[in-house]
Specification:
Blueprint lengths: L2 H16 L2 H8 L3 H15 L4 E4 L2 E4 L1 H27 L5 E7 L4 H14 L3 E7 L2 H9 L5 E5 L7 E8 L2 E5 L22 E4 L4 H13 L7 E3 L2 H9 L3 E5 L4 H6 L3 E4 L9 E7 L6 H15 L7
Parallel strand pairs: 3-4, 3-5, 8-9, 8-10
Antiparallel strand pairs: 1-2, 5-12, 6-12, 7-10, 7-11
Helix pairs in contact: 1-2, 1-3, 2-3, 5-10
Amino acid sequence: MSLVQDRHIHYFFEAVRLGSVRAAADALDVAPSAVSRHIAQLEHELSAALLERHRRGVKPTEAGERVLDYYRQRMAQQEVLLDSLQALRGLQSGTLVLASGEGFMDALAGTLARFSERYPRIELRVNIAGSNEVIRQVVEDEAHLGLVFNPANDPKIRAHVRRAQPVRVIVAPDHPLAREPGAISLQGLDRHSLALPGAAYGIRQILTHAEHQLGVALTPTLTCNTLAMLKRYAVEGGVTLLPAFVAEQELAAGSLVALPLLHEVFARPEAQLITRLGRQLSVGASRLLGMLAQEVGAFGATAR
């Protein structure tokens, strides 16, 4: 495609990414009419309608999705080319974006620090997000790599590492539940002060699925979007549900314990290291992938 067409596609991509022609115009510092003109020219050249316009903004048609896939792949290939040329000159620079669930950071901060020490010219950006948002960023090439807990099946992602991470009941050692002789039932949690993450988190999605299966409806006393708060809540006498690796430091220190749940659905979740299916990674991204894969593969599940 010509350079003129490249600009058409870029304007189209920004309109879809930002959700409206006006938002794209603001980001590109041009008039909305200029964005609309470039998109119209692209539709004319491709003989296909690419956008559906609604009161709330725009979304791509099926043909538009294919153009977006082409654009993302071409941008990724361009990144790989530039990276390989830098490698020929003995340089390793650029930016790598990792989208990650919050719970991975304590376990993997050391790995990221070692990577930065080894490749100081590569800027690492970490986007902390819920499971659904991590997948979106990876699929749409906003992030090179993703660390996600219990992701929904998506044909556009590839899991390089999958590690079983059962969901546990997390409480202080002196909590009454810690004295229970066997696995904890979901029904038994309703008698205690329960803190849970929001609906965007894989943990909450697992719990919702289990509630439907078992005909149970738990009512949390606290809902929040930070796992650090959930752990602190448990230290202070409450109850939360987390995979053990999220509370690894607290479990090792003895300030929290991880108790098994009775129901099989809580034994199946996985921590996964993902990329977009078909994405060719740069040298730097491939090396970060390798380092993270070793760490995620070594995750253990701590329980009583």
